[in-house]
């Protein structure tokens, strides 16, 4: 399976509210830090008519694309339903106008016809979205799952039809911490369509990847989103997801899931990260000539720019706590804590630690300022990194809220996880 093959996640281009962003409040309808067209033009051409700045992290967060690309929970009505409803409404209006003209007759028929045509009609109501049933740990019939944690599961579905129960059942108990709602989790998975008996793309497939998401955040189908919190890291969990917890009446052709089908998953909970966590380790002093950092645990660090040292013209970085995880690669989603301040006066303008909520973004895609992409790609997960970013890799000659134009920025970034 390729990196863009179907899998459990969200569709491209949707968004939901969030207030996590490196920077601070910017004037306008929402809080944002923006990258101007000119700054991202090197990465991808933009249409000539697009004049607005490109938001890279704002209070309208784009839902993260899953490695496998599964759709979100199904909507309540399809496009065909809307079209048919609209046609029916038009026909009803037309019938009313014809009957009125027939009964009235005479030369004055045109005026009432115009009045009737202008009368608003009620839009067809959409059927309610199916309610996800409550989670239970058993059902009348269940699939059998064999195989060890960390390896592909073998799922055998019964010949009997599923009874519509949403099942989440621990198959093997892990020894790690209990996952809380809001934790960032890494999950390996094997899946099967109950009705067809066919396997659906999984993370253990060739070219597959673990699913990396925030438990209970509503970013994935309920089959995954609601199945992880409350279970321990290292556990394998069986999930039987009826259509309302999967892809509903429409199914998911990309993933090979039929309309109205029930899904079965074996989920391996590999890792969990508290959104208020910081990296662990003993910090070392920053090199001479760079801002010095005083650690305060889960509170924003005190960062002191050096006196009498001109701001650097090029990106400077230093590892304050070396991580032991894999290196961050371009295109990965990373979860970080950060504190940012101005080099000129040491004034803090933003910190995720003040909110107790880590920030996530995809590297190398222009979602953050260029200094972040250049400075964090190649660093190891678990590291604390100091970045001194010149204006050319930051916001250039554009003021951003409390950040003046042509500012050199200092960030201390904890790389909590990547997936």
Write structural notes for this entry.
The chain starts with 14 loop residues before the first strand and ends with a strand. The chain has six helices and 21 strands. It is an alpha+beta fold and 419 residues long. Helix 2 packs antiparallel against helix 3 (110-118).
Features:
21 strands; single chain; six-stranded antiparallel sheet; seven-stranded mixed sheet; alpha+beta; 6 helices; 419 residues
Topology:
Blueprint: E1 15-17, E2 32-35, H1 37-40, E3 54-58, E4 60-62, H2 79-104, H3 110-118, E5 135-136, E6 144-146, E7 154-156, E8 166-172, E9 184-193, E10 199-200, E11 211-214, H4 222-225, E12 236-241, E13 263-273, E14 292-296, E15 299-304, E16 316-321, E17 333-342, E18 348-351, H5 352-355, E19 359-362, H6 370-376, E20 384-389, E21 409-418
Parallel strand pairs: 5-8
Antiparallel strand pairs: 1-4, 2-3, 6-7, 8-12, 9-10, 9-11, 9-13, 12-13, 14-15, 16-20, 17-18, 17-19, 17-21, 20-21
């Amino acid at each position: 399976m390729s990196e863009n093959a179907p899998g459990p996640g969200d569709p491209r281009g949707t968004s939901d509210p969030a207030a996590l962003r490196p920077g601070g409040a910017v004037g306008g309808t929402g809080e944002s830090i923006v990258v101007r067209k000119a700054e991202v033009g090197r990465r991808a051409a933009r249409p000539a008519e697009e004049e607005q700045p490109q938001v890279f992290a704002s209070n309208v967060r784009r839902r993260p694309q899953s490695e496998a690309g599964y759709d979100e929970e199904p909507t309540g009505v399809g496009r065909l339903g809307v079209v048919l409803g609209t046609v029916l409404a038009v026909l009803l209006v037309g019938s009313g106008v014809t009957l009125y003209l027939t009964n009235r007759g005479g030369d004055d028929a045109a005026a009432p016809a115009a009045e009737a045509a202008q009368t608003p009609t009620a839009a067809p109501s959409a059927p309610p979205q199916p309610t996800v049933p409550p989670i239970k740990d058993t059902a009348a019939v269940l699939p059998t799952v064999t195989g060890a944690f960390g390896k592909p599961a073998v799922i055998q579905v019964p010949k009997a039809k599923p009874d519509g129960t949403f099942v989440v059942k621990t198959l093997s108990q892990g020894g790690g911490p209990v996952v809380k709602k809001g934790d960032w989790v890494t999950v390996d998975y094997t899946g099967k369509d109950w009705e067809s008996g066919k396997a659906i793309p999984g993370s253990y497939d060739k070219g597959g990847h673990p699913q990396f998401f925030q438990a209970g955040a509503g970013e994935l189908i309920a089959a995954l989103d609601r199945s992880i919190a409350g279970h321990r890291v290292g556990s394998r969990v069986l999930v039987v997801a009826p259509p309302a917890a999967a892809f509903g009446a429409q199914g998911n052709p990309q993933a090979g899931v039929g309309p109205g089908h029930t899904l079965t998953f074996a989920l391996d909970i590999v890792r969990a990260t508290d959104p208020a966590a910081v990296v662990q380790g003993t910090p070392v002093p920053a090199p001479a000539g760079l801002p010095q950092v005083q650690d305060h645990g889960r509170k924003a660090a005190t960062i002191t720019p050096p006196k009498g040292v001109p701001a650097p013209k090029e990106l400077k970085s230093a590892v304050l706590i070396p991580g032991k995880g894999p290196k961050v690669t371009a295109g990965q989603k990373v979860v970080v804590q950060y504190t940012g301040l101005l080099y000129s006066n040491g004034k803090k303008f933003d910190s995720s630690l003040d909110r107790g909520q880590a920030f996530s973004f995809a590297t190398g895609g222009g979602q953050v300022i260029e200094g972040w992409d250049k400075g964090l790609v190649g660093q190891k997960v678990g590291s604390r990194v100091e970045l001194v970013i010149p204006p050319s890799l930051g916001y250039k000659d554009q003021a951003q809220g409390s950040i003046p134009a042509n500012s050199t920025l200092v960030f201390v970034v904890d790389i909590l996880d990547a997936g």
